Amino acid sequence: MTDVEMKPADDKKKEETKKEEKKEEPKPQLTPLAEIKANAALLERAVSSFEPRFTHRVLRTLTALRKRIDFTVLRNAVEEIYTKDSPVKKELLGWIPAETPPTGDMEIDSSAKKTPTAEPVPEVEIYLRLLILHHLLTAKENYPKALELANQTVEKMQSLNRRSMDAIAAKVWFAVQRAYELGAELADARPLFLAAQRTTALRHDDEAQASLINCILRSYIQYNLYDQADKLVSKTTFPASASNAQFARYHYYLGRIKAVQLNYSDAHTNLQQAIRRAPPGKLAPGFYQAVHKYFVVVELLMGDIPDRALFRHPVLEKALGAYFDIVKAVRTGSLSEFQTTLSKHAAQFEADRTYTLIVRLRQNVIKTGIRRLSLSYSRISLRDICVKLHLDSEEDAEYIVGKAIRDGVIEGKIVHEKGWMECGVQKNNYGPEVSELFGRRIAFCLNLHNQSVKAMRYPLDAHRKELAAVENAREREKELAKGIADGDIDEDDFNPEPGF
């Protein structure tokens, strides 16, 4: 048997370090042009192999890719993907403005251009239209052109009617909704979305259906048509196979609808689901901030105070500054501070569309102030309540105090003849009767404990007597068994009485 040569330990360590270095080396990032061409190849592969996972792989890179492209990259991509005399190529190049010099941060693929030999599949055309549409929406002067491209893309997509285009269609509908919204014509797109939603529901196109339901809900909420939005939710079923991003948007819109309808518990649940399903705050800061703004207001309307750590989040700290001031005013029960904060940040609340909800917090602030007064005074006049809570009249104070007593916020009664409020003894205060009852309960528990300890006491060595008795019984059994075996004892000895 031949000997095996063993490598030194140092050589093994060097090989392991080399392998670790190879693993740690990051893959070089593709240029935007090369990434678009690779995505086009993946779309071709998805259509030829009937594998939608390749299309989903392409769409996962859409958010990061559209931030790295410009019109020069898009023009080069169209020219390199399509043949020279392709009519689709001429049509796509017509939507791209004249060439602009590339910026310093943009990387352009300098590899030699290869002339394609075949026309790409229609999915590639819709994907390039989607990229062009997103880039047109980055500049305000291109909004009319983007809206025209969006309408033409929808017509092209509906005329092709290819099921392999369903995943791309969901992204296209979101871009179309964005183009109409930025062009201030979102109401005009509602019939288009409703007709497309019916078609996708009949075709069981779950991805496009989820996207269209969110587009319609956003259109209704944008124009304060909450009744129509609620009817749409009750008449449709959101696809269970939709992505987390679509579910997050859907729960966010549901939370806003329920909050306006005074259904705060359901609104809180939906907004919580939207936060859990949404991407991290660093990836989607705008959506993350918008959801938390409504989440804070709904928690306040429910009578809860949001966690202070929420306002220290790096993504939310600046965006929720005005809402933190509102939380402090509600917590202290100061109506004057609440009104000052509301007027100070009214413009921001109007922009966030939370002003009408925050105005409802006035009753919560008054209830908190009345609760503080009931704890501080055993008797206080309605006039003093008006002064301390900055109410308009004594009649308002009497109505608010009466409602607080009826709702169980405070314990007390209103003396109309003398014009004051008498606060009852709070349940959590220890009076003489409560102390006496509490002492009796403690004495009973201690007595029960002592009796239990006494019942568990046994005489010493009592178990040894039982062991001796058991051993004697075993000896007698052995003797009886031995006598029966030897024939010395008959069975009659065990039954001395007849008939037993």
UniProtKB/TrEMBL annotation:
Residues 1-33, 478-500 are annotated as: Disordered. Residues 1-27 have a biased composition (Basic and acidic residues). GO terms for molecular function: enzyme regulator activity. Gene3D superfamilies: 1.25.40.570. PROSITE patterns: PCI. Belongs to the proteasome subunit S3 family. It comes from the Eukaryota. GO terms for cellular component: proteasome regulatory particle, lid subcomplex. The lineage of its organism: Eukaryota, Fungi, Dikarya, Basidiomycota, Agaricomycotina. Keywords: Proteasome. Residues 248-428 form the PCI domain. This is Diphenol oxidase-A2. GO terms for biological process: regulation of protein catabolic process; ubiquitin-dependent protein catabolic process.
